[in-house]
Design brief:
By secondary structure, the chain is mostly beta strands. It has one domain: Methylamine Dehydrogenase, Chain H, CATH 2.130.10. Helices cover 0% and strands 45% of the residues.
Length: 363
């Protein structure tokens, strides 16, 4: 091997469409920066994961595109040093990425439809330490970990099923969320919320997380939305909508209590500070991020990214209404509350108070 070329140890997983690469070095200079569709941060703030959507090899069964610059990538990073710890190759559009509460597992969700009515979307769980695939839920499009990490709710086209998070034993169903677009546990774990379509309109519904019983439903919206951002204060959540609208909701009543409007009029992705006192939203078109003080309702910061756009690969008919790949979680506060991370430039941490760049995860 020529001098200066990093050595890589490769492990081939016998699972559909996944290659695992564990790097001995902290850089892969032949891979250009790509904006990440999804960002995840471990609860202790020590790990960051990024997911970059990409292409398949256009064959069947599909595999990741042979060119690293074009295939999908999930990467796990040391948040302090920026060193890449795991790299997983895939394909399709990533729509969610989360660490389990204990930080030992990483869950991802991707959409992929090769054509002919065949759906290869999946929810998959990974071992963070080894990069190995632990469990795959086929033809599923959304998930949520319970706050204690003991359960995971998974959505398919017709069902919402809750599994034990380590043995993956099927525990129960939540029928009111059977055709939901998104699912989310409340911070205290008592409720399971979802966004569902009802007669061509969209609403938030709340269920008892243990019995699956429907508790209440919100007002209807004409256009779909995809994100339920739970506030750490346990009494509120936020949703992001087209037109630059962000709604702040009371959790128990499912009634919006405040509305914020952003300068950019595309769909917004909301996220809360760890203390629940600041609400932020990132534009899925530009990557611009705005912050509001929830006590005063005033905007306190706004930052832009020169390269804030996002690319999707999922083929869509112009008449398709529900497109969750257009609102992935690519913005988040870091656990310290003083910094935030966006998927721009591959993944970038910035200071909330002044916008200064702290760390970049760009290869």
């Amino acid at each position: 091997m020529a001098a200066g070329i990093p050595k890589l140890r490769l492990a081939w997983c016998v699972v559909l469409g996944i290659w695992v690469t564990e790097a001995w070095v902290a850089a892969a200079p032949f891979v250009p920066e790509r904006n990440a569709q999804c960002i995840a941060v471990s609860a202790d703030g020590l790990l960051v994961a990024t997911a970059k959507s990409g292409m398949s090899n256009s064959e069947f069964p599909p595999r990741p595109h042979p060119t690293v610059r074009k295939c999908g990538l999930i990467q796990i990073w040391d948040a302090r040093t920026g060193q890449m710890l795991q790299r997983l190759q895939s394909f399709g559009d990533f729509t969610n990425l989360r660490f389990s509460p204990d930080g030992k597992r990483l869950a991802s969700c991707r959409l992929f439809t090769p054509g002919g009515g065949l759906e290869l979307s999946e929810v998959r769980l990974w071992d963070v330490a080894t990069g190995k695939s632990l469990r795959q839920f086929n033809r599923c499009h959304a998930f949520s970990f319970s706050p204690d990490g003991g359960e995971i709710a998974v959505l398919s086209r017709t069902k919402c099923v809750i599994y034990e998070a380590e043995s993956y034993t099927r525990l129960r169903r939540c029928d009111p969320l059977g055709k939901a677009v998104a699912v989310e546990y409340s911070v205290d774990g008592r409720h399971l919320l979802g966004i569902r379509e009802q007669e061509g309109r969209f609403q938030v519904v709340m269920c008892d997380s243990q019995t699956g019983a429907l508790q209440r439903a919100s007002m209807d919206f004409a256009e779909p939305f995809y994100t339920l951002a739970m506030s750490p204060d346990k009494i509120a959540f936020a949703t992001g909508h087209k037109g630059g609208v962000v709604l702040h909701w009371n959790l128990e009543s499912l009634v919006p209590v405040a509305q914020f409007r952003t300068l950019d009029k595309n769909i917004q992705h909301p996220f809360f500070s760890p203390d629940g006192q600041t609400l932020a939203a990132g534009s899925q078109r530009t990557g611009d991020v705005e912050f509001w003080d929830l006590t005063t309702g005033r905007q306190v910061y706004r930052y832009t990214f020169a390269r804030g756009t996002m690319r999707t690969y999922h083929p869509r008919d112009p008449e398709d209404r529900i497109c969750p790949e257009r609102d992935p979680p690519r913005f988040s506060f870091m656990p310290d509350g003083g910094t935030f991370i966006a998927g721009c430039y591959g993944g970038m941490i910035r200071v909330v108070a002044n916008g200064q760049e702290v760390k970049r995860f760009g290869y």
